[in-house]
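Below is our example:
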Amino acid sequence: MNLPRFALPDLYLWNTDTVMRKKQIMLLRHAKAEAGTLGGDFSRKLTPGGCEHAVSLGQKLLELRLLPQLIFSSTAKRAAQTCDLVCEQLAIDTDQVQFSDVLYMADVGTFLSQLHRINNRFKRVLIVAHNPSLEDLVDYLATAVFDSDQPSGKRMLPATLVMLEFSGNWADLNAHSCSLALRLHGKLLNDE
């Protein structure tokens, strides 16, 4: 299916049937990566299965019409590849993605600093990064306990997206201010 390429600021006009009243933070853990490489952890690439899971997740986001208006990604190879594959499914030009080295080993404070600087005209943001940082961020922001929904006990498998929602301004985002709206596991989408 050939979809037109959109500039990110225009996406919010297409992604819902009603005007979005709440802001949404989509947190995506990179897809399954190689165990190790000569270039070290930062250079790990996605496995073929990881690539499939990232594509499946991107297709599901398109099906659900959950298109981000603003995207941040870690510059680590596996995160950048995940971001590229998801953006390809959403017909988003990766030139619009803000790649950042600080998201590689980010802590909650780093993520909050990034989120607090977002212009309030943006309602849906995607961050592609790593665990355990993303789980820590969900724990900090969510009003509910972020439990596992997997037999393994893992909360965010590779290629898992968690969407949080909140009302208010980005600059006011703080602890326990978001509801857990959605969790998608890219690995499990192929089983549906």
